[in-house]
Amino acid sequence: MKSSLSTGKSLFLLLLSSLLVLNAFAQDSRKIINLNKDWSFQKGTNSTVERINLPHTWNAFDVMDDTPGYYRGIGTYKKKLVLKPEWKNKKLYLYFEGANQVTEVFVNGKKLGSHIGGYTGFRIPLSGLKFNGTDEVSVKVDNSYNENIAPLTADFTFFGGLYRNVSLMVLATAHFDDNQYGSKGVFVRGENVSQTNAEVLVNGNLVNHGVAKKIIVTSVLTNANGKKINEVKFLTSAKANQTIAFQLPKIQVVNPILWSPDHPYLYQTTTKLIDYQTGKVVDEVKTTVGLRFFSFDVAKGFFLNSKPCKLIGASRHQDFAGMGNAVPVDLQVKDVELLKDMGGNFLRVAHYPQDQAILDACDRLGILASVEIPIVNEITESVAFTANCKVMQLEMIKQNYNHPSVIIWAYMNEVLLRMRHADNAERKQQYLNNIEKLAQELEDLTRKTDPTRYTLMSNHGDVNGYIKAGLVKIPMLVGWNLYQGWYGGKSEDFGPNLDKIHQQIPDKPILVTEFGADVDPRIHAFAPVRFDKSLEYGMLYHQIYIKDILKRPFIVGAAVWNLADFNSETREETMPHVNNKGLLTLDREPKNTFFLYKASLQTKPFLKIGDGSWKLRSGVANVNENKVIQLVQVISNTDTVELFANGQSLGRKAVVESTSNWNFPFKDGVNQIKAVAISKGIKIEDNAIINFVVQPFNFKDGQEFKQLNILLGSQRQFIDQQKQEVWLPNKTYENGSWGSIGGEIFKPKGNSRQSYGSDKNIKGTTNDPIYQTQLIGLDAYQLAVPKGKYEVTLHFSELVGTGASNLPYNLDSLIATNKEVPEQRIFDVFLNDKQVIEGLNLSATYGVANAVQKKFECVVTDDKGIKLVFKNIKGKAVLNALQIKQIK
Ligand code: GCB
């Protein structure tokens, strides 16, 4: 019995092979035609129709202006389809890789399909086509708030539009199929992978829209050089309109070359549908295959191919400066390349599935990935919300299943952050139960759909809350978004906090799925403090976090929040509408913090003058001196560094926690900095040229006076990148020097105390930090400048008053926004005894948080210099910033 069966099988295979050889070149497989070019677009229903190319969003610019909010509504895209007559007997589909967030597709006026959710792909079958050049597709996209679609709220901008590729799929009547979840219908995975053996499993669905036929499914595994390793086949009969699920025999691989971050080796499967009768290949899907095995250990961390491998990297949002989420694929791929260059091996694709190109790049570069659906902050307790979440989860898994880089599927981020029904205990409990139920259902669905990966939920710092809500026990891994030293506490609390969480939850591997501090690269501080947004604070914060993460084996992985700055409409702060926690800027310029990770993670010798990108600096000289000592930080993974100032060695210093800090003697003008290190016998160096403006402490007659730009109520430096001006912190007046007389520093009230100065968006400027701090109730400002003619500009902004917006993401305590009454202040200003401002009623005349400038000229003829005197009529006078220029 056994032998006759196997003889039969061999005979069949023999027949099949000869048939395949005969017809190996007869191909009629799928065509994917990119449709990105030349669409018409109309925002809403009344605006003018524009010609655009995809990717496209209608929110690229309206998120950047001073008006709150951005367009959330309908946009309609139209395009003529150029269809070849020979495609009449094919199956045609449109494939949308992503459209935010509800999409309806019409062809020749007839609705052919729709899709819910902005971050996964979907396929729409075409029908009713004329093939005469008049076929027109019309796509209605809507990014309005919808209580049944995740995300409901989040700290990122929900850009609307057809923002990923759209293509036309021309398929034979029999083809691989997954209409429902937008995948290609072919699923490939490695199983029983070890150093010596592996099996490759290919399964999927096919559909036959033609007459009944016999179909052969084959899959060939090739190595990275294209050499065939093995082939498997399967014969089936498909009736008309039948869908068949297939599972090919396992492909054996002996001594597989394993995929890993250091060696991301990719095999490939080419899976074909062959018409048995004609021998024609009717469909073909190529899939890269990475063979690897992994596990998470609660105490020892993550293991890849039996070797310990700490997951460390960053999260990524998909937007880019000036483009919103409509970013060309090659620019997106650069993000993964930058992460790799940084030494990262882990990408948290947050908070939603992203372009396929991202995971393709992860596969190619050896970055392990976690992907999640966008349930953020809260849920809606509705059948529709649950159903939509489940479809998103299935789409995410099925569309991204074949990427070897993916090791984790996730589904909720800080779901208890926006607690609903907080004032009704019973109702709140019901809400919590519903969250738990949704989590469990998504967990079960995920494990059933893909038992080869781990599951994850990311929580905010309320550890007890998540335990109590039953959410910690559900996923296989638990992620914590921790911001000690940012939203609350001190950075030093981070490590002990990790130990506490580990003790509290001893049975679940822990990831730090978020940590970060805002860094506005225009801001510097030599006494950095939380919320000042300085690069220097960011460096201190990340140094502590890196150390604490690396030394704890039970932290299986960590992802910096965020790889790059990203748009978040509701944020105000120093760069309104942008979350500045990126290691890179919105246009992907590295900040020093990026180099810090590079030095900490990369094994190749690395050396960088950290402040090299801070090309324009300034500082106040000591009395009677013409130089300024300022910190220069060299970021490196070598043991020691030698630093040169304008060609002269300053000596050699040890590198501690990836940095060596130098008191650099800056002279006025051009300064050359060179850092040199020897690592593994190889000399590496970095050079920087920094233009330094020495501001005299005491002015002398005849001395050239440069422009002086002063921030009041602030200890930071601010660089106006457009004007190339450096703003220095104020000081109190000393004889013969310059500074303020009297006054106190503005301190925000209530929840806004979480900011440095005010966190209000100052309208009428992009240099918000110039206006966000101020001195209140000052008596005078005096500058003992040399004789000459000057232009004096006073910068004001009322910082107290309604319109106050508080940080939307204070994770420690979400105190409701308190409406503030605008401060009433009326004051006069005298410039060298001459009244220049009379009865300035700041809030009444200019409102709250508007940039106000008052410019005056004065001539200094004696050694008294410039003196501004402030006289209160009502309330207390303020001054936010001051600018003095000598004029001819
Ligand atoms: C978080 C959120 C993330 C925010 C981040 C922040 O915990 O998960 O979406 O962007 O904090 O910067 O506040």
From TrEMBL:
Residues 754-864 form the Malectin domain. The keyword Secreted does not apply. Residues 632-683 form the DUF4982 domain. Residues 195-292 form the Glycoside hydrolase family 2 immunoglobulin-like beta-sandwich domain. Gene3D superfamilies: Galactose-binding domain-like, Galactose-binding lectin, Glycosidases, Immunoglobulins. Residues 421-448 form a coiled coil. SUPFAM superfamilies: (Trans)glycosidases, beta-Galactosidase/glucuronidase domain, Galactose-binding domain-like. Residues 300-601 form the Glycoside hydrolase family 2 catalytic domain. Residues 37-169 form the Glycosyl hydrolases family 2 sugar binding domain. Residues 1-26 form the signal peptide. Keywords: Coiled coil, Glycosidase, Hydrolase, Signal. GO terms for biological process: carbohydrate metabolic process. GO terms for molecular function: hydrolase activity, hydrolyzing O-glycosyl compounds. Belongs to the glycosyl hydrolase 2 family. This is DUF4982 domain-containing protein.
